[in-house]
Amino acid sequence: MSQEMKSQCSDEYHSSDEDMDEDINNYYEDMGDDNDVNEIQEDDPESFEFELLKVEDVERLLNESVETLCKAINVAPSLAKLLLHMQKWLSTDVIARYRQDSSKLLRDSRLAPTNVVQVCNSPFTTCPVCLQRCPAEIMSGLTCGHRFCNDCWQQHFAVQIQTAVSTGIECMFKDCCVLVPEDFVLQIVTNPKIRDKYQEFCFRDYVNSHPELRFCPGPNCSTVIRATERKAKRVVCKECNTCFCFRCGIDYHAPTDCDTIKKWLTKCADDSETANYISAHTKDCPKCHVCIEKNGGCNHMQCSKCKHDFCWMCLGDWKTHGSEYYECSRYKENPNIANESAHAQAREALKKYLFYFERWENHAKSLQLEEQTLDNIKKRIEEKVMNNSGTWIDWQYLLDAAFLLKKCRYTLQYTYPYAYYLDKGPRKSLFEYQQAQLEAEVENLSWKVERAEITDRGDLENQMDIAEKRRLTLVRDFLEL
Questions:
Q1: Residue 415 neighbours by CB under 8 Å, 6+ apart
Q2: Where is the composition biased (Acidic residues) (predicted)?
Q3: Which CATH class is domain 124-190?
Q4: CATH 1.10.10.10 fits 258-277+345-478, yes or no
Q5: Residues classed as catalytic
Q6: Tens digit of pLDDT for each residue in 317-368?
């Protein structure tokens, strides 16, 4: 091959490589169309319909709701916006409650006081904060009747906004919880930076209170996700490639539910020092006892010295490890633990937690180590293409396999918090069986991905199909919406 042709091939490769990096770095692929709408995919229990909105789209959506409410009950836009915010943007409920008893709705929404203060009509009034006697034109008050000078209001607003309070700003009077509407704040505050910050914080609060909207948690991402139902479903932001749960906003965690994953993450943070000793990267070969470092995602290990095949997690012989049931993923509880002493029960509880934490942590590390495997695959493909051993299309299946492996291992990682909190019984037995089946197929896929060649394509694609079916079956049976 001429130098010019090699240079051209290399340029094409690097261009394709850059495009591919963005896709492979995602654990889940976003199948949205050009209008940023993610359609429901058949046979995918994690998929649901959502829409990606820009800031101006969200503002238009919120303003439409405000306009509709203003026309329906004839209130000022700033009051309508606060009413909707306090009532979770349920326009029909707000309209019905307002027509039934407007005073009660305003009190419940903290927009009107229980007892209104009598307003003094004197041309001069003493401000209760600075105790200065001020002309009436520089005194302002809310529906509660408490009036303060504009300078005191401005200082009060500046302090509140600097501490990120916006829609929750209250009247300055002691024990008065009446909220300050947006137009009142903007009328008083003159500093452009503080005004911008206030409006930014208000927008954040409005989105957070809207049942159909959620900010993308990705760093420096301003995208807002819209979905008709707040389900614990997978969302992938096309702007920053962040994958998260729409209901709780943290990393996507199927099949574990939102409450359980929060408990698990809190427990891991609290017990991190206790679990540190199991986080080492090296173990001894169970046959020749040489020290081995795990440098790939696969738990099927082969000692470089004696060639013994064993499991990284339990150190058992791989030949008999997963032939019938992947016991390595199942915790064996002491059936007589209820009759043991409190000290023994505490030891058993710690043993159980460490069992699940080790496997959770191992899959997290495997996901990181498989980045190295992916880099090796890319280098191998480049070498093959440069040596005329197939084209990029011929080798695409290896990248598809690496992507699917990460997808399956990601799901597998989140099965361990679910299993830890799942009560003993038939459901847990079924879950552990399916978890074990998925674990076995993921390890088989990982082993084959790391060693695949073009002649192994059929075998590898068959293993990919089996692993994905195992994953979907488990998620479909245990994903709680």
A1: 255, 256, 431, 435, 438, 474
A2: 18-40
A3: alpha beta
A4: no
A5: 298
A6: 777 665 444 566 666 666 666 656 776 777 778 888 888 888 898 888 888 8
